[in-house]
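Class, study these two lines:
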Amino acid sequence: MAAPPVQQSHPDDLVRELAGPPGWDLLPTAEPLQLVGPTGEQVGSQLRLPADDVLLDLHRRMVLGRRFDAQATALTRQGRLAVYPSSRGQEACQVTAATVLRPQDWLFPTYRDSVAVVTRGVDPLETLTQFRGDWHTGFDPHAHRVAPQCTPLATNTLHAVGLAHAARLQGQDTVALVLLGDGATSEGDTAESLTCAGVWRAPVVFLVQNNGYAISVPLAKQTAAPSLAHKGVGHGVPGVLVDGNDAAALHAVLTAAVARAAAGGGPTLVEARTYRMEAHTNADDATRYRSAEEVAAWRDRDPITRLECLLTDRGLLDTAAREALSAEAEQLAALVREGTTQEAEPDPLALFDHVYAEPTAQLRAQRQLLAEELAAPAGDDR
């Protein structure tokens, strides 16, 4: 039997409830906001459940994202990718971050946010280009409104605030959503970004995916604050604490934060408590700093299983739909496998293509010299 209908949300309602003038409270709630419990039960009363079609779309994208992530991880173990930081377990954060944005908004991802990049519409093979070592960024950032994946911690927070503030000065309706981990909140760049965003009321949403560890450093050794969401207070930026494995709650909170920023309400700092199920990267041994029991406990809070239980109980997801989705995910994995078997053919002259918008005379001379050397017959050492 399907569950009884529930009151579902509209973005305008969320703005009024959470982000209406003059803005929501600076201090976050003591416990993470939730809509769906670990076994799919509906919980919480501070948010409204997104519409059924939104929930189904979130579930589909999380399933596809996990299959993409698993395939990329396997390719790394086979030596077909140089490195790949898995986001398994963080699918709710990845998918909602991309889906709440409007076409004109920008996403600023980190190295761990490939699923968010693919969800935003970037070709999966182009997303993996830099992890193969073939190119700096395999996609056109402007075409997708997705910045290059950032490896240095927290530098993308500066980029997001700069772009959002510039867009506002130019009268553009643009919001920037920047992804960062708990480790990045310990960096000075994050503090500077929050300060500038607060002073300028920049249209920026900071989404902290708190997965418990900055590589091997646990959160308790990074901060004594009650939550990372509390870090917004000193910068005049509202903080929101949400269950990072609850896609429904995340979608409600981030939709409101984006709407608030677009309406001129300023930035929001959202902390999503989640967990990284895999090692930091393929070069990391996670067993050295966390226990199997801890990982198992978080496996029981799986974001996909949680939403799937809710959809099944509400009569929105049946066996046929799950099988069709599984087949779609396998098609995606096959595309990624086949694409990464094709070796790239690098052009040495491409080294000079994007150093400056207009090449300098020195660069043109160097390029010409290299071109002549490449064109010279074998054995010609002139």
Notes: The CA atoms of residues 369 and 375 lie 10 Å apart. The chain has a mean pLDDT of 92. Strands lie at 106-108, 176-181, 204-210, 213-214, 217-218, 239-243, 268-273.
